[in-house]
Amino acid sequence: MKQFVSSPKWLGVFLAAVVLSVAAYIIDVLVSEVSPGNIWGFSFGTAAAVLFFGAALYGVRRRSVKFSSRMGLGRVQTWMQFHLYGGALFLLLMFMHTGFSLPHGALNWALWALSIWVTLSGLLGVLLQKWTAQALSSGLEIEVIYERIPELSDELRSRAETLVPTAPESVRRFYERDLALKLQKPARSLRYFVDISGGAHQIARAFDHLKQALASDNAKIADELEEIYRAKLALDAHFTMQAALRAWLILHLPLSLVLILLALLHLFVVFYY
């Protein structure tokens, strides 16, 4: 649990806010009609809007480090916690604002659906980021920038192709059969979500079996090929995990911007009409 909760204090505040919000909704149900238009529904909607736009400002804070530091606008980590917990509380208050009923009209349907999508995808992204960081740091010995992975993969392939011509026939056959295609280019695979090492035990057994039939000098070539292949698997693990995070961002950010525009339109319609 600790690996997914970076601030127990923020979690405690969030849970307390959830309890208070639910209590207020129960009182609304007991003393009044559940409606977005009465004072209770309007209050829930206002609180949801404040939380939503406040959480949306995290993106601005993250991209204006120097200005925010000069203005004393707080640490990025603090904004991140508000973005996470404020966004989750926003969804609850949005449901309370509508009385937990399905919306009417195209605009309200779009707001309702996008609010759910953006909030849940955001929570999924947080879990993915924390799990990925832990998996990469605990299971791999290298850190690498995503954009450099193709270049580093090419270097590993070149090293292997330099070694193989000097190796005995058994090593050359092993390379052509089991390694050559896998060293061609960076590859993504779902197996890294299950085993971050990419099957290190199977790799070790295959190379051990190969080296048993080799003299000591030739075994050194096999050892270097094994080192190259393990490094390639580590690159592929980074390639897979970092690509997943980038894909998540594409799923989350554009629709978040659409939701902001629709929320502003909703506020305009409510106050103008």
Notes on the structure:
- 75% of the residues lie in helices and 0% in strands.
- It is mainly alpha-helical.
- It folds into 2 domains: 139 residues, no CATH class; 100 residues.
Summary of the model, kept short:
75% of the residues lie in helices and 0% in strands. The protein is mainly alpha-helical and 273 residues long.
Poorly predicted spans: none
Determine the strand fraction and express it as a percent band: under 5%
Radius of gyration: 27 Å
How many structurally independent domains? 2
Average pLDDT score: 88
Class per helix and strand makeup: mainly alpha
Helix content: over 70%
Summarize the helix and strand pattern as letters. Answer: HHHHHHHHH
Query: In one word, what is the shape?
Result: elongated
Separation, N- and C-terminal Cα atoms:
47 Å
Helix run count = 9
Number of strands: 0
Please give the largest β-sheet. Answer: none
Topology (elements, then pairings):
Blueprint: H1 8-31, H2 39-62, H3 65-71, H4 76-97, H5 106-139, H6 149-163, H7 169-179, H8 200-211, H9 216-272
Helix pairs in contact: 1-4, 2-4, 4-5, 5-9, 6-9, 8-9
Core attributes:
273 residues; mainly alpha; 9 helices; 75% helix; elongated
